[in-house]
Amino acid sequence: MNREQWSSKLGFILAAAGSAVGLGNIWRFSYVVGTEGGAAFVLLYLVIISLIGYPLLTTEIAIGRKTQRNPVGAFKALAPNSPWWLVGGMGVLAGFVILSFYSIVAGWSLAYTAKAITGFDATADFTGMFVGHITSLWPPIIWHAIFMALTIGIIASGVVNGIQRASKILMPALFIIILILVVRGLTLPGAGAGVSFFLSPDFSEVTSKTFLRAIGQSFFTLSLGMGALITYGSYLKREDNISDSAAWIVGIDTAVALLAGFAIFPAVFALGFEPGSGAGLAFMTLPAVFASMPFGTLFGFMFFFLLAIAALTSAISLLEVVVAWIVDEKGWSRTKAAFTLGGIIFLTGLPPTLGFSVLSDIKFLGMDILDTYDFFASDVMLPLGGLLTAVFAAHVWKTKNAIEEINSPKGVISFGNWYTVLVGYIIPIAIAIVMIVGIYDKVIK
């Protein structure tokens, strides 16, 4: 069976950047910046995403292109007759679990896009509105189903006609919308306080928690450890350089996160709201911001539509990981795999969807069902997968072979001995610390 390939280097970059750009860049990045003191966190995040995120992302792409296989098949090809394929299997499982609850939050974005069409009333109880939505029975299920249907449709259409075509439309649209929102935020009276919060670091705010959250955010936003970049790399042509493409992917991902900050914080400060409102920043604070803003209906609609686009570009990479595995390993057709697995993922997402309503009394380790899914996927499987991928590349595949693959053909950025130190030692240790601290904070502390 001939394996599909990206029709162009640009198609790969946009698709892989779409995988990285998601709710983490706009929703999660903004509220973490807000709660971690602003610019000091941003600066620390930029350093970490360069030293940890970029090398590991490049490694995953190289493994995919070298083997031309899904995550499970890739580890089998490079380390036959060994248990290393379980690392790829964990990535497939992580993609499955993450999409089952990611689709729920993405469904909230679609629901708020629809709400924004009629405008937000400045006198409304936005906290009550959000709580009312997630604790109702059918609306969250319906929006979850709509979002999964969109994701399945794109994946069923194929690598070029589905993923690449959608990315070429959605990524430029995302940038246009976010730039419009940046201009609107920066031109509001009093926006300077938000710009200062975002750009003027106060290192007295930095703690060990800030450092750990910066590592976690860089890992989360680049879709590392879940096999998405291995899968996308497997469709990459031999003549396309890896290191330069990876730099573009990291650059686009980081640009979206920074632009989101410039779109959100000037508006939040200009209209007198609290930037440290946490995870509710997007769904409880920002509707109030838009309700108080001239032309708020238009900009509210654009923001939540932007959030939905970002969610979709990441969701298609999550489903592609699972679909590529069953197509490669079991010989299913892409259409059968997309609809079957997408349907199962939708059903798997029903418990966390209902975890705020009819299943609200069910708790695991003191967490509701959605947080439990998130904990095991994001705090356990993803960092463990990333750590083991780094160890595998350095000590099993060997950095000499990894560097040869990355540098073939040579690009502007050339990998050398520094890669051995980073991937062989620094990155695994850093990820291990994040994982251990995260588990301690949520389970033991």
Automatic annotation (TrEMBL):
<dbReference type="GO" id="GO:0016020">
    <property type="term" value="C:membrane"/>
</dbReference>
<feature type="transmembrane region" description="Helical">
    <location>
        <begin position="293"/>
        <end position="326"/>
    </location>
</feature>
<dbReference type="InterPro" id="IPR047218">
    <property type="entry name" value="YocR/YhdH-like"/>
</dbReference>
<feature type="transmembrane region" description="Helical">
    <location>
        <begin position="141"/>
        <end position="161"/>
    </location>
</feature>
<protein>
    <submittedName>
        <fullName>Na+-dependent transporter</fullName>
    </submittedName>
</protein>
<feature type="transmembrane region" description="Helical">
    <location>
        <begin position="247"/>
        <end position="273"/>
    </location>
</feature>
<keyword id="KW-1133">Transmembrane helix</keyword>
<feature type="transmembrane region" description="Helical">
    <location>
        <begin position="380"/>
        <end position="397"/>
    </location>
</feature>
<feature type="transmembrane region" description="Helical">
    <location>
        <begin position="211"/>
        <end position="235"/>
    </location>
</feature>
<dbReference type="InterPro" id="IPR037272">
    <property type="entry name" value="SNS_sf"/>
</dbReference>
<feature type="transmembrane region" description="Helical">
    <location>
        <begin position="38"/>
        <end position="63"/>
    </location>
</feature>
<keyword id="KW-0813">Transport</keyword>
<feature type="transmembrane region" description="Helical">
    <location>
        <begin position="338"/>
        <end position="360"/>
    </location>
</feature>
<feature type="transmembrane region" description="Helical">
    <location>
        <begin position="418"/>
        <end position="440"/>
    </location>
</feature>
<keyword id="KW-0472">Membrane</keyword>
<keyword id="KW-0812">Transmembrane</keyword>
<dbReference type="Pfam" id="PF00209">
    <property type="entry name" value="SNF"/>
</dbReference>
<dbReference type="InterPro" id="IPR000175">
    <property type="entry name" value="Na/ntran_symport"/>
</dbReference>
<feature type="transmembrane region" description="Helical">
    <location>
        <begin position="173"/>
        <end position="199"/>
    </location>
</feature>
<feature type="transmembrane region" description="Helical">
    <location>
        <begin position="84"/>
        <end position="105"/>
    </location>
</feature>
